[in-house]
Amino acid sequence: MQETLETPEAPETPxxxxxxxxxxxxxTVYQAYSPALGLPAARDGRFPPxxxxxxxxxxxxxxxxxxxxxxxxxxxxxxxxxxxxxxxEGFDGALAEACLSHYAPKVHADRADWKKTLSRSPVRVQxxxxxxxxxxxLPYRSLQLGLSGPASRAYADEWTVAIRDVTPxxxxxxxxxxxxxxxxxxxxxPVETPYPSGPLPHLGA
Length: 205
Known about the structure:
The protein has 7 helices and 9 strands. It is α+β, with helices and mostly antiparallel strands. A hairpin with a 5-residue loop joins strand 6 (123-131) and strand 7.
């Protein structure tokens, strides 16, 4: 009698896990801007003076979460999607000093402890439902990193290695999805793999 070999099931994606395009030294995050800001940033490979370095800015390692946020580059003021390659050293430093943007009983001793930590940190973290190509929510979450003050300035002027305008790719993928060719659209998506951040207990991960 021939033995039947069972195919092992793929491990489930952790509820909170950083997935990104990354190299040995860099990690790619996504943002969407108006053409007035996005095009000069992509052209020069750095954020222009008009980019407000004192304002909190949110970066997203998840391409599809960015598509959910900007509506495939159709929302006003978000027509230009940028892939911003930043140093892993900067990203790791931001994670180390980050605080959850909301109170989590399993992470913080109490609300006062959370508020104290929040007031000290220029970096915020939110875990939002990851999205599939049709922008439906998935049962696991994706990181959003909010940078303010010194962290925002460092992001713009120190961590950034390269900036690319990926709006043409966004439109191509969106066009394939609207045409019903999900497989072809998936083939064009950036390949995001688990980022080796290690455990992040202060961020609930």
